[in-house]
Specification:
This protein is an alpha/beta fold and 293 residues long. Helices cover 46% and strands 13% of the residues. Pathway: Amino-acid biosynthesis; L-lysine biosynthesis via DAP pathway; (S)-tetrahydrodipicolinate from L-aspartate: step 3/4.
Length: 293
């Protein structure tokens, strides 16, 4: 069971958009050292939409190799084509991922029965623990609790990343699916309350830049130490807010660049953080002790 702070890892790139393998290895080792509880490789924060099949597989393979069983690796293998999702999930299993995270099919707008059949087919095709991922604000597709309940009966569908920020939705999923079904926040701003309410962790953007503090906050919440968790989360709230000042992962990649951890590369149609937004995020990073000056 993977619980706690699970970083939705960015994919480091050079300014020409090519994957920066050395920086990728450095980030994985840094997260292990900082106490991150798990890594999502090539999730949507990792720019999965603009990585080709071979690149996608290669990033997952590299993260698995560098993590070297020190912390679990969840591979992002979702797609809006069921056959593509199966291929990516098979490859991730072959390459040693501990589990897979599958975003709902984007743009297609499938009905609930289509979502059920999509996830069921992937689960039956590949025997690896699979985590549903619901983020309707990005996909124009909402995986409803009654469909999650149906899918929770599939043995290797083990949990969901619920990124609506709707705590009542998370409570309903828990009631429908039981205590053994893993519920992760996909919304840093509400992750603390989700965990205090019985959730299992946070698949986090903020953990990219503040891994130790995110890990400590998540652990305190899972341990039931609400006062300590809230104290730590209050220090993280400016990051929860400003790492979404422009579409993710634009601000996070720029923040890591400012921190000297990656180059300033990102793939079109995304572009680096606008000059207008940079002073605000730089000030937030300084206020959180992540930049000097």
């Amino acid at each position: 069971m993977i619980r706690g702070s699970i970083v939705a890892l960015v994919t480091p790139m050079r300014e020409d958009g090519s994957v920066d393998w050395e920086r990728l290895r450095d980030l994985v080792n840094w997260h292990v050292e900082q106490g991150t509880h798990g890594i999502v490789a090539v999730g949507t924060t990792g720019e999965s939409a603009t990585l080709g099949f071979e690149e996608h597989d290669s990033v997952i393979r590299e993260v698995v190799a560098v993590a070297d069983k020190r912390i679990p690796v969840i591979a992002g293998t979702g797609a809006n084509s069921t056959e593509e999702a199966i291929r990516l999930t098979r490859d991730a299993k072959r390459d040693g991922a501990d589990a897979c995270l599958l975003v709902t099919p984007y743009y297609n707008k499938p009905p609930q029965e289509g979502l059920y059949q999509h996830y069921l087919k992937v689960a039956r095709a590949v025997d690896i623990p699979q985590i549903l991922y619901n983020v309707p604000g990005r996909t124009a597709c909402d995986l409803l609790p009654e469909t999650v309940e149906r899918l929770a009966k599939v043995p290797n569908i083990v949990g969901i990343k619920e990124a609506t920020g709707n705590l009542e939705r998370a409570r309903e999923i828990r009631e429908r699916c039981g205590d053994d079904f893993l519920i992760y926040s996909g919304d840093d701003a509400t992750a603390l309350e989700l965990m205090l309410g019985g959730g299992d962790g946070d698949i986090s953007v903020t953990a990219n830049v503040a891994p130790a503090k995110m890990a400590a906050m998540c652990q305190a919440a899972l341990d039931g130490d609400a006062d300590r968790a809230r104290e730590l989360n209050a220090e993280l709230e400016p990051l929860h807010r400003d790492l979404f000042i422009e579409p993710s992962p634009i601000p996070t990649k720029w923040a890591l660049y400012e921190m000297g951890l990656i180059d300033n590369g990102i793939r079109l149609p995304l572009v680096p953080l606008s000059k207008a937004a940079q002073p605000r995020l730089r000030e937030t990073l300084r206020g959180c002790g992540l930049l000097e000056g």
